[in-house]
């Protein structure tokens, strides 16, 4: 009898352990962080068109927010004046509706991926301030109105401020001065008064950059123009920035009365060319084997350090969850990550949560556990 009771309790314990293990395993990023902030991913065309079942499942099971990695950029969505190409963006927004995602539009006004028609006349000369305003207004109104109520937040302006706190000398700035930013926010607000509006940038932890962004945020607010959040892209390396630099930025932006969105998170596992940080598309370096050391997989010790770095960031995000609205990874799997080609083309990087076969890396469970044990 005693023997039977012991075996029965052993069976019961084994079952309950395995149910527990099962439950732990079935927790996903979005369920683990549901009370903290949205967890998102940037989608390329393959995910938007649901070309791969495995990656679709990852998107819909793990994330509750999506952003368009490329298809809403001006050169894709309005390649020639007045000629809009909406096929990809329509599919992206429809996917967001289908899976009830917090859908983000990226990006309305950006100096890069911008067709030259936007700021030149038929002779190739810069247009007047009035013409540029009209073009910005038409671009923003057309896109934002089309997705009104469906796209919940817009990266209205992207990457307009430099690390030294000066304004980037883009065509928008050259023709309209700093005023192009308030104008872009005003046009977006007119087109969809309920959408959240963000200013998005990289290297957003540089002190001088923080100062100028905050000045710009305060200027908008004082003029009654809405800005809901600052997007911190967070394309970061193993070497930097430090957690203290990052925390300082989060606290400063929040104290200016805006939410923080971590908008393009990825952590490169590869060595960084000296002095490079952030995501300035123009900063590229010649290929060199030294910069591509892990073509056949990450060594265990490097992977562990990389996981720790992600864990440090998520601990920080959890600590400041009252200030953070969303954390979005810039892509789903390592195979499509832009980091394979930036800042050195043709490398094998490991910056994201899902590997080249679309399997969750061990980091996913660690990040889920952090939320569970907070
Ligand atoms: O990940 C994007 C890559 O596929 C594009 O080629 C590149 C140029 O449009 O843009 C990348 O995304 C950028 C984002 O739109 C803005 N912040 C920096 C990102 C990485 O360059």
Verbal overview:
The chain is of the alpha/beta class and 374 residues long. It has a single domain (38-372), classed as TIM Barrel. Helix content is 41%, strand content 14%. It is built from 13 helices and nine strands. The chain has helices at residues 2-26, 29-32, 45-48, 53-62, 74-77, 87-98, 129-146, 171-176, 180-191, 207-222, 243-255, 300-319, 362-372, and strands at 38-43, 65-68, 102-110, 153-158, 196-201, 229-232, 235-236, 259-267, 324-329. It has an eight-stranded parallel β-barrel with strand order 1-2-3-4-5-6-8-9, surrounded by five helices. Strand 5, helix 10 (207-222) and strand 6 (229-232) form a beta-alpha-beta unit. Helix 7 (129-146) runs parallel beside helix 9 and helix 12 (300-319) runs parallel beside helix 13 (362-372). The longest helix is centred in the N-terminal third of the chain and has 25 residues, at 2-26. The radius of gyration is 22 Å and the shape is globular. The two termini are 44 Å apart. Mean pLDDT is 93; it is low at 16-24. Bound molecules: ligand 9MR. Ligand 9MR is lined by residues 69-70, 73, 113, 158, 202, 233, 264, 279, 281, 338.
Q: What is the number of helical segments per DSSP (H or I, 4+ residues)?
A: 13
- Provide the CATH topology: TIM Barrel
Shape: globular
Task: Give the strand order, joined by hyphens, for the main sheet.
Answer: 1-2-3-4-5-6-8-9
Number of distinct beta strands = 9
Say which molecules are bound, naming each kind only once.
ligand 9MR
Spell out the CATH superfamily.
Glycosidases
The radius of gyration over CA amounts to 22 Å
**Average pLDDT for all residues:** 93
Name of the CATH class: Alpha Beta
